[in-house]
Design a protein that fits this description.
With 263 residues, the protein is an alpha/beta fold. It has eight helices and ten strands.
Length: 263
């Protein structure tokens, strides 16, 4: 379920780039083989022991209920906006495959990769490779992964295949897309991996999942369906935030929310 309004791809790229560049961040293209992924990184970040990587949501996946977008570049890059509010000064942003790219960098960009296959093995593998490239770029030893909306699914699936993730944090996350599809009466995401199925690989990773109490797009029941897969002693918490919905008011309150869950 994506935004129902659209801007031109050039307008979306320019607007997102402006958000990053006004903060002094610059763009990096990461070639995973199947896809080229876009990242934005702060110029002052050189080396860090622990790197926080924010993974973007699904973006403009659909124009309307029956029409897929021709390009999933987000109208409102919430993952980027959250990354810019991170208080650690060791955070970077990773877009999803096919977001922000053009020309030859659009390799592999079939529409299925932002619709039915948005969390496919190919997408997860590409994200794993991009995450590793960012880790090596900054000499990091450990990672914190933070995913927004559909990016929460990707962050979870990436974390399930790594041994260096200290913490998994999600915001308005699609953590069980099977439960989500049933709740909304949608066709299942055929070709996509489901984060809830990776509970065994994720159970040792400390997890915090933020949900907006007023979110009608991804409700708290999706996070609870995901959490129900885990043993009781799993270090997993769901934080339902009153008055918040899928978009409001995560960016404005993000620094404080992170402080509230600091170890």
């Amino acid at each position: 379920m994506g935004a129902c309004t659209s801007g031109s791809l050039d307008e979306r790229r320019a607007a997102s780039a402006l958000i990053a560049t006004e903060a002094g961040w610059h763009r990096v293209n990461l070639d995973s083989g199947d896809f080229v992924l876009t990242a934005f990184v702060p110029p002052e970040l050189r080396q860090t022991t622990t790197l926080t990587i924010y993974i973007e949501g699904d973006g403009l996946a659909w124009i309307n209920a029956s029409t897929p977008s021709f390009n999933p570049t987000p109208l409102n890059p919430m993952g980027l906006k959250l990354a810019l509010r991170d208080p650690t000064s060791a955070a970077v942003y990773l877009a999803r495959p096919c977001q922000f790219v053009s020309g030859e960098d659009k390799q592999g960009c079939d529409r299925k990769y932002w619709t039915s296959h948005r969390f496919s093995p190919e997408v997860v593998t590409a994200s794993l490779i991009a995450v590793e490239q960012l880790k090596q770029r900054f000499g990091a030893l450990r990672l914190v992964l933070i995913g927004y909306s559909g990016g929460a699914a990707v962050a979870s699936l990436v974390a399930s295949q790594r041994q260096d993730v200290d913490r998994l944090i999600t915001v308005a996350g699609n953590l069980d897309h099977q439960a989500w599809a049933i709740e909304h009466g949608l066709w299942p995401l055929e070709g996509s991996l489901n984060p809830a199925d990776a509970w065994m690989q994720l159970q040792s990773i400390p997890q915090t999942h933020f949900v907006g109490a007023q979110d009608k797009i991804i409700t708290a029941s999706v996070a609870r369906a995901y959490a129900a897969r885990f043993p009781r002693n799993t270090p997993l918490s769901i934080k339902v935030i009153p008055l918040f919905n899928h978009h409001c008011c995560w960016v404005e309150q993000w620094s404080q929310l992170l402080k509230d869950i600091a170890p």
